[in-house]
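Quick one, probably user error.
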């Protein structure tokens, strides 16, 4: 048995020279996702009513829902529709990775000019998780807002997008920049950092509003995303070497006493 013990000790010491990896894991604790949409359409806007139908009022049509909704307004021979939806895939969590995807969109359509429509979309996610040991974390993601169609009635709006990660002595925050005129944005981000073990919170926000006037024929989409990859940080080699040396010495002492 003694030769086998010494062989084991030699192999263990060799492995210790390169460090013993810590099996860090991402353990979800609590999570929640909240979505909502609202909006409305006007088949005959105030100018239309003033010049074409004086004395008449188009009250419009409106909607509000948790995930998706639509409203169609009819006024004489005119019609206008506003639709919206919210809810990305949320979070996909494994031992060493978190993928977060939030988003939604809106669609406007009509059959004439001097019309109007708007939509509001909200998709928010919150996660608390336990990181069991120190990890090197690489994150990528971005904020995207896009529109198809739109002419001759331009689409305007805003995107309130944010990714926030916080924990023991750490805070990482990314915010979507202003879109300016129009409804378009493509802003990626990337970062790397080391996290100690502990409990962390990850919050994601994708809140947008869009509106179109004159002619309605546009579809808009938003997306807020994050991919976080966690890599185990091994113990320093010298610590593992001392541990291995101690074990080898103990085996040697037990062997000598057994003679």
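Nope, works fine. Designed sequence:
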């Amino acid at each position: 048995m003694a030769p086998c013990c010494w062989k084991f000790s030699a192999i263990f010491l060799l492995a210790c020279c390169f460090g013993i990896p810590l099996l860090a894991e991402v353990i979800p604790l609590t999570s929640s996702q909240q979505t909502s949409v609202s909006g409305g359409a006007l088949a005959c806007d105030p100018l239309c009513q003033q010049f074409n139908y004086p004395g008449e009022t188009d009250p419009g049509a409106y909607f509000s829902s948790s995930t998706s909704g639509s409203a169609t307004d009819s006024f004489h021979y005119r019609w206008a529709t506003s639709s919206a939806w919210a809810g990305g895939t949320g979070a996909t969590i494994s031992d060493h990775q978190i993928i977060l995807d939030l988003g939604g969109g809106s669609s406007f359509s009509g059959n004439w000019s001097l019309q109007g429509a708007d939509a509001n979309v909200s998709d928010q996610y919150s996660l608390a998780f336990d990181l069991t040991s120190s990890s090197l974390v690489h994150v990528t993601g971005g904020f995207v807002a896009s529109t198809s169609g739109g002419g001759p009635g331009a689409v305007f709006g805003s995107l309130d997008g944010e990714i926030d990660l916080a924990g023991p002595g750490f805070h990482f925050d990314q915010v979507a920049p202003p879109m300016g005129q129009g409804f378009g944005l493509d802003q990626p981000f990337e970062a790397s950092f080391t996290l100690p073990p502990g409990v962390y919170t990850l919050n994601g926000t994708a809140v947008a509003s869009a509106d179109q006037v004159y002619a309605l024929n546009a579809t808009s989409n938003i997306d807020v995303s994050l991919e976080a990859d966690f890599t185990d940080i091994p113990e320093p080699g010298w610590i593992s070497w001392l541990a291995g040396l101690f074990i080898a010495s103990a085996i040697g002492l037990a062997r000598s006493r057994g003679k």
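The chain has three helices and 13 strands.
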